[in-house]
Specification:
This protein is an alpha+beta fold. It is 30% helix and 23% strand. It folds into 2 domains: 191 residues, Fructose-1,6-Bisphosphatase, subunit A, domain 1 (Fructose-1,6-Bisphosphatase, Chain A, domain 1), CATH 3.30.540; 126 residues, D-Maltodextrin-Binding Protein, domain 2 (3-Layer(aba) Sandwich), CATH 3.40.190. The chain has 8 helices and 15 strands. A hairpin with a 4-residue loop joins strand 9 and strand 10. The chain is globular, with a radius of gyration of 19 Å. Bound molecules: 6-O-phosphono-alpha-D-fructofuranose.
């Protein structure tokens, strides 16, 4: 039918042959993420109406208050992924350690591990600011038929086979890559179907939006301070616009559409930065690079960082290629 938009389900099936590993398993994995996203979206959208807002009364390994929706989203993604019998292990921001997934008759035959930030930006939940889910998918590297190991999760970002995010915003979208470009799907809540709304998304090579928590300015490395002042000076197409929602998925998504750079530098309170390498920075970096953008820790490509710890943090600079390169120039010149 003319003008009929492709659904996410149709897109997954149509493109599964392009996936260099077992297409059926990845398709099933992506379908389970699609289902979990719809379930979480339903709760996020009605959070203001029921007593699901507010602290869960517990804290996660990050020492952050767990919001009830954090826990709900975490449980929903873990249960949905487990039921599909595709993954051998899951790591989550909300779980201190990785979870081994293996039903009795299964004997650890599943080949994929998933790392998730189930509800990023959750501190914004009870002020009605958009939040997101971030996921990263790898093939296991330890022998199939044995329990998953930490090494399966501590892989460089360049080894990811798929990554994506859900943004629960003015509309709910899934944006993901399997290494063959980036595509965005928007949910029609009336029928619970995601439709291809943003095919082949590309970061504008340059941009005029910078996203950083300027409240931490005095704490930033000199190179970052110099870059921010560069963004603010009257010259060429500057001053740029400062836009910071405080929700990585939303800031990243806007910058990918309009052009921009997101920055979370290190500082005295966050000596390695705040964002987690494995389930925030690497998946966003994979998407950024697949959309012709760039991502680094100020000096090195984010996806080349060798992980040493599940909840490891890194400084994170990600967005339009020319803006990230300019930031790196300031870091090389002025450094810490
Ligand atoms: P700050 C949310 O907690 C998050 O991980 C990202 O989504 C967001 O960009 C950042 O932290 C906000 O951190 O220190 O500026 O409040």
């Amino acid at each position: 039918m003319k003008g009929k938009k492709q659904t996410l389900g149709e897109f997954i099936i149509k493109n599964q042959d392009a996936f260099k590993f077992s297409s059926g398993e990845l398709s099933s994995l992506l379908n389970s993420i699609r289902l979990a996203a719809k379930v979480v979206n339903h709760e996020v959208n009605k959070a203001g109406l029921v007593d699901i807002i507010g602290a869960y009364g517990d804290t996660n390994i990050q020492g952050e208050d767990q919001q009830k929706l954090d826990v709900y989203a975490n449980n929903t993604f873990i249960q949905t992924l487990t039921r599909r019998n595709i993954v051998c292990g899951i790591a989550s921001e909300e779980e201190d350690h990785f979870i081994t997934i293996n039903s009795i008759d299964q004997n650890h035959q599943n080949k994929y591990v998933v790392l998730i930030d189930p509800l990023d930006g959750s501190s914004n939940i009870d002020v009605n600011v958009s939040v997101g889910t971030i996921f990263s998918i790898y093939r296991r590297i330890t022998p199939v038929g044995t329990p998953v190991q930490l090494a399966d999760f501590l892989q460089k970002g360049s080894e990811q086979v798929a990554a994506g995010y859900v943004v629960y915003g003015t509309s709910t979208m899934i944006v993901y890559t399997t290494g063959d470009g980036v595509n965005g799907f928007t949910l029609n809540p009336a029928i619970g179907t995601f439709y291809l709304s943003h095919p082949d998304i590309k970061f504008p090579e340059d941009g005029s939006i910078y996203s950083v928590n300027e409240g931490n300015y005095l704490d930033f490395p000199l190179g970052v301070k110099k870059y921010i002042k560069y963004c603010q000076e009257e010259f060429e197409n500057r001053p740029y616009t400062s836009r910071y929602i405080g929700s990585l998925v939303s800031d990243f998504h806007r910058n990918m559409i309009k052009g921009g750079i997101y920055m979370y530098p290190k500082g005295s309170r966050n000596p390695d930065g705040k964002l987690r390498l494995l389930y925030e920075c690497n998946p966003m970096a994979f998407i950024a690079e697949q959309a012709n953008g760039k991502s680094s820790d100020g000096y090195r490509r984010t996806m080349d960082v060798i992980p040493i710890e599940l909840h490891q943090r890194v400084p994170f600079f990600c967005g339009s290629k020319k803006m990230v390169t300019k930031l790196e120039d300031f870091m090389k010149k002025f450094g810490e």
